Amino acid sequence: MNNVIMVGRITEINIDKTKNTAELTLAVTRNFKNAEGIYETDFIPCKLWSAVFSNSIEYLYEGDVVGVKGRLQSFEDKTISVIADRITFLKSKSSS
Length: 96
Known about the structure:
Layout: E1 4-16, E2 21-33, E3 39-49, H1 50-56, E4 65-74, E5 80-91
Parallel strand pairs: 3-5
Antiparallel strand pairs: 1-2, 1-4, 2-3, 4-5
């Protein structure tokens, strides 16, 4: 089973409207503190294709908090990304 569910803040968005794809980076804070007492953050690359792209791209902005449900996929260049199956809009940067 290959499922990923995460909540984080969008730090970067790259849109390619000619291919109906977008890549975004999601900053996801870990649930525990490190030895220095600081919560560490992971920056997770996510890809949006087809229906997920067309249904959500107008509403995604850097700084927004979103939930992403998807799956992990590895690529020929040895990178791993989350392929989004669903995006839930939780909090926009402007409403903070």
